[in-house]
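A note on notation is needed here, since sequence and fold are reported together in a single record. The reader may check this reading against the record printed directly beneath this paragraph.
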Amino acid sequence: MANNPRPTIKAILPKRATPATKFKIDYAWWDNSDLDIKTYLLVRLKLGEALDVNTEIEEVDLVDPHTAEVYRVDGFQYLVQTYFNQLPDDFMAHTSLVDAAFCVLLANANRPMSGLEIAERIRRDPETVVKTLGGSKIYQGIRPIFDED
């Protein structure tokens, strides 16, 4: 038996989010859920009262301020992004952490943001933001982005 040593098993630990971990909305999560993102935005976040969603805008050309790349976005996405960028500063203090983070990511055109950046924008404790958004439960499709090793 001495010729057959036991194999060593390397423990695989799940990755943990930190304040430096970036987050983004995973639209595939919405596609696979029973929820509809437009309905959520219009009803839960009460955007139906604030946006004219009956406009005929199908697509809008936008310029990325960091890369100067021109890209096309859905007209509804553009209206939502513009709306969330114009919210008063105290809005985030009066909504749930998850909804506030969701709004901040939408306002940022769903470009990845670190837990610390989100926490600063929504005026919440970074550790609470990371524990909530980086945990095992996915809220509103917000997922941490871990670099592949």
